[in-house]
Write a structure and sequence with these properties.
Blueprint (H helix, E strand, L loop, with lengths): L8 H10 L4 H19 L2 E4 L1 H16 L11 E5 L26 H8 L3 E6 L11 E2 L3 E2 L15 H8 L5 E6 L5 H7 L2 E2 L25 E6 L2 H11 L26 E4 L10 H16 L3 E4 L8 H9 L5 H9 L7 H10 L6 H20 L1
Parallel strand pairs: 2-3, 2-6, 9-10
Antiparallel strand pairs: 1-3, 4-5, 6-8, 7-8
Helix pairs in contact: 2-3, 5-6, 9-12
Length: about 375
């Protein structure tokens, strides 16, 4: 087996179950790695080292006694600091919650623990997870593991940075407008934003009510795609609390007949042109799929260029009044410059009820166009 800090969560779980390595050894390796890299990254903002060590010893003891092992038995994970982990601080990066401690686990955290995972700590984010960088007035800025002068992205930037640096094999992020996808891209890891209605947001401190809720999804992040395949079935499904989650079976990707797939790709969304390196990478990926016998076509959905404005019209229909009220209700009187920037961006987007209802009609039309494509 590879060094634990460079192994996938899937291979670690397999090795622990086989007795090739102990959970305690795996946990210690990752705690050492965090201690080594975190002073430069500022990715992990709360550690659970003593609890993790105790849980690892317990995991090894249960395995030695012949107890059944879950799919993540003894495997370390990290959690974005906007999802409750019982006994750990959860501030969502906003000063009004600076002293808050979580009393219970978010649904996704409880499910990971039930599968045998061991939480190492909480990772950094922008205030209320509402920026494309990971910086706040409580914990400061997270740096990109490949270049400390650059950003790891946001809002799940702390998660992406520590995973990329080998401090955690698997983590949980959240995505409303790119908050898993952007940091994964910036840090060179894998992540997935699940389909709306897959994963409960219960225990999430951000804003999810009303029209915003379909935008916010919790998903796994890892260095290896196989770990997304492992983690997603664990965290998805109804929990009896989040009313937007549906009881929809999750298919097994291993049973998909690749030869029957049709893939469309495009290298420019009509909003912002990517770098030449990104274009090359996307084209190479398309060629790799074609080499596997998949039907691949370069085609961009008509109307995709509306996505940016439509997203901002949805979240900014009230001109940011709801967000300001949310900050006030949390006791936050001083916000980070990134939050101030967002509020100023939303202010001129305030619209009437009639106009807001028209945005919802546009959203349905947009979704219908994407389905038709």
């Amino acid at each position: 087996m590879l060094d634990p800090i460079y192994s996938s969560a899937t291979s670690l779980a397999r090795a622990i179950r086989a007795g090739d390595v102990s959970s305690e050894e795996v946990i210690e390796a990752h705690l050492r790695r965090i201690a080594e890299v975190n002073p430069s990254l500022n990715a992990v903002v709360h550690m659970a080292a003593s609890t993790a060590r105790a849980e690892a010893r317990g995991a090894d003891a249960r395995l030695a006694a012949g107890a059944a092992a879950g799919p993540l038995h003894g495997v370390p994970v990290t959690i974005k600091e906007i999802y409750d982990v019982a006994g750990l601080p959860c501030t969502a990066g906003t000063r009004g919650l600076a002293s808050r401690m979580a009393a219970t686990d978010a649904t996704v955290v409880a499910r990971l623990k039930a599968a045998g995972a061991i939480v190492l700590g909480m990772t950094n984010l922008p205030e209320l997870a509402l920026a494309a960088e990971s910086d706040n007035l409580i914990h400061g800025r997270t740096n990109n593991p490949y270049d400390f002068e650059r950003s790891p992205g946001g809002s799940s930037g702390g998660e992406a940075a520590i995973i990329a640096a080998g401090g955690s094999p698997l983590g949980i992020g959240g995505d409303a407008g790119g908050s898993i996808r952007l940091p994964a891209h910036f840090c060179g890891i894998a992540g997935i934003k699940p389909t709306t209605g897959r994963v409960p947001n219960t225990g999430y401190l951000g804003t999810t009510a009303g029209v915003i809720n379909p935008l916010v999804q919790i998903g796994p992040m890892a260095r290896f795609v196989e770990d997304l395949e492992l983690a997603l079935p664990i965290i998805c499904g109804t929990d009896g609390r989040d009313p937007t989650v549906v009881d929809m079976p999750l298919g097994d990707p291993q049973t998909v007949d690749l030869k029957r797939l049709r893939v469309a790709f495009y290298v420019d969304d009509g909003i912002a042109s990517p770098t030449s390196e990104t274009v090359t990478t996307v084209r190479r990926t398309a060629l790799a799929l074609a080499d596997d016998g998949i039907a691949v076509e370069e085609a961009r959905p008509a109307g995709i260029e509306q996505a940016y404005e439509l997203w901002f019209d949805l979240v900014g229909a009230d001109g940011g009044v709801g967000l300001r009220s949310r900050l006030q209700s949390l006791g936050t009187t001083e916000t980070h410059p990134l939050m101030h920037q967002l509020l100023e961006l939303l202010r001129p987007r305030a619209m009437s009820t009639t106009e807001a209802l028209a945005v919802l009609v546009r959203l349905d039309r947009f979704r219908a166009e994407m389905f038709a494509f």
